[in-house]
């Protein structure tokens, strides 16, 4: 075994390396906001919203306080609330389901496709009832879900389609960028995302002006003008400081996504034929932005331990399916309810991946995986 004291740590994600590449621009942008005392909404938020809408090839982008709030406000803006059901997946971050509950609706889970781990349209169809109002697929790990089949379900059953694009900034389905495929889409700018702020942040993206106007009101205490509150809303504004930072980083997002894709192809080349390792399955119809590079291995926890011993960080996204989370025990869904999602929870392992990685680092990780799997 290598002496870990002499081996430089390979991080799961290296935000410091990203910062060093843009530090002067970042500090200049932050300084402008502070010197102008332009902290709440205003031109820096508007500039970012316009830029992000162009990036998504959408009409509207509305900055909000987090990706969680993006889902809550989207649900409320399209009229979903008590008595309604929203179908999503159990193998995602907790906020996806939490947001449905906080909007007053009931979260319903559908199992996922065993190859892509995205929402399985056949399973979603089984969960539709007279109370179902929307589908909420997650573009997991930066890879778009099977949107055409999901759109057809929505057309057939008169449902709304909400994209959880928190991990998929710039991803494409049949040449169309996520964010414009459904009725409304929700993005997160959590620091580790492909487009990450220096704190929390999120955005709602849509081509529907009515939804955009409603979200703008909801994020700012239900008002369109100062002191006149038309509805009860939230304090969920994207900070101008974060917007200014995001505007700088947005300029480099396409390039960063391309680097991620290249790194993923190198991982594929090194690992796709390794016995005991399942590499990501990406259909020809989609372009993933590889927010995460996730393999599946039978003895995941042992492999993770061995990699850590060699100074290689990994992650698990996600170890506990949402239907088995204590907070959602009231749904009455036990083990065995969603076998594909449950099997994934015990086998998925996220390997280091970020634009600034070197070819040598990827090869070091892949060599270690091959050594310890076999």
Percentage of helical residues?
25-40%
Count of distinct structural domains: 2
Instruction: Give a count of the beta strands, DSSP E runs of length 2 or more.
Output: 15
Distance between the termini: 15 Å
Major beta sheet summary: 7 strands, mixed
Average pLDDT for all residues: 96
CATH superfamily caption of the largest domain: Type I PLP-dependent aspartate aminotransferase-like (Major domain)
String of helices and strands? HHEHEHEHEHEEEEEHEEHHEEEHHEH
Question: Architecture of the largest domain in CATH?
Answer: 3-Layer(aba) Sandwich
Shape: globular
The CATH topology name of the largest domain reads Aspartate Aminotransferase, domain 2
**Unreliable residue runs:** none
**CATH class of the largest domain, please?**
Alpha Beta
* Helix/strand structural class: alpha/beta
Please state the CA-atom Rg, rounded to the nearest Å: 21 Å
What is the topology, as strand order, of the major beta sheet? 1-9-8-5-4-2-3
Number of helices: 12
β content, as a range?
5-15%
Task: Report on the architecture of this protein.
The protein is of the alpha/beta class. It folds into two domains: 18-250, Aspartate Aminotransferase, domain 2, CATH 3.40.640.10; 253-373, Aspartate Aminotransferase, domain 1 (Alpha-Beta Complex). The chain is 39% helix and 14% strand. It has twelve helices and 15 strands. It has helices spanning 15-36, 43-56, 67-77, 94-102, 121-126, 147-157, 209-219, 240-250, 253-271, 300-309, 339-345, 359-373; strands spanning 60-64, 85-88, 106-109, 132-135, 160-164, 172-173, 176-177, 184-188, 202-206, 223-225, 228-229, 277-278, 286-287, 293-297, 348-351. Strands 1-9-8-5-4-2-3 form a seven-stranded mixed beta sheet, with helices on both faces. A three-stranded antiparallel beta sheet has the order 7-6-13, with no helix packed on it. A three-stranded antiparallel beta sheet has the order 12-14-15, covered by helices on one side. Helix 1 (15-36) crosses helix 8, helix 3 (67-77) runs parallel beside helix 4 (94-102) and helix 3 packs across helix 7. The longest helix is centred in the first third of the chain and has 22 residues, at 15-36. It starts with 14 loop residues before the first helix and ends with a helix. The mean pLDDT is 96.
């Amino acid at each position: 075994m290598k002496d870990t004291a002499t081996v430089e740590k390979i991080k799961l994600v290296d935000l410091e390396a990203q910062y060093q590449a843009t530090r002067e621009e970042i500090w200049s942008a932050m300084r402008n906001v502070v010197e102008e005392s332009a902290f709440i909404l205003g031109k820096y938020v508007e500039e970012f919203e316009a830029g992000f809408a162009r990036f998504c090839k959408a009409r509207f982008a509305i900055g909000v306080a987090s990706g969680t709030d993006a889902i809550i406000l989207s649900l409320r803006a399209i009229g979903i609330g008590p008595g309604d059901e929203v179908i999503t997946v159990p193998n995602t971050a907790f906020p996806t389901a939490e947001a449905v509950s906080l909007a007053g609706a009931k979260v319903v889970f559908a199992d996922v496709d065993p190859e892509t781990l995205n929402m399985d349209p056949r399973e979603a169809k089984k969960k539709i009832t007279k109370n179902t109002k929307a589908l909420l697929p997650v573009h997991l790990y930066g890879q778009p879900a099977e949107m055409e089949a999901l759109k057809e379900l929505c057309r057939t059953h008169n449902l709304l389609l909400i994209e959880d694009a928190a991990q998929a900034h710039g991803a494409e389905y049949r040449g169309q960028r996520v964010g414009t495929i459904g009725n409304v889409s929700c993005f997160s700018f959590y620091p580790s995302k492909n487009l990450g702020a220096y704190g929390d942040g999120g955005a709602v993206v849509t081509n529907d002006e009515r939804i955009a106007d409603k979200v703008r009101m909801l994020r700012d205490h239900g008002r369109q003008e100062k002191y006149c509150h038309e509805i009860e809303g939230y304090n969920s504004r994207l900070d101008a400081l974060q917007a200014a930072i995001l505007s700088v980083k947005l300029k480099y997002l396409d390039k960063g996504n391309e680097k991620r894709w290249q790194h993923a192809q190198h991982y594929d080349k090194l690992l796709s034929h390794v016995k005991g390792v399942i590499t990501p399955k990406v259909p020809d119809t989609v372009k993933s932005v590889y927010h995460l590079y996730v393999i599946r291995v039978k003895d995941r926890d042992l492999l993770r331990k061995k990699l850590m011993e060699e100074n290689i960080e990994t992650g698990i996204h996600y170890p506990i399916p949402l239907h088995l989370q204590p907070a959602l025990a009231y749904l009455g869904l036990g083990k065995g309810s969603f076998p594909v999602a449950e099997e994934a929870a015990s086998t998925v392992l996220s390997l280091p991946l970020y634009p600034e990685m070197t070819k040598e680092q990827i090869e070091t990780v892949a060599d270690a995986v091959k050594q310890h799997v076999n």
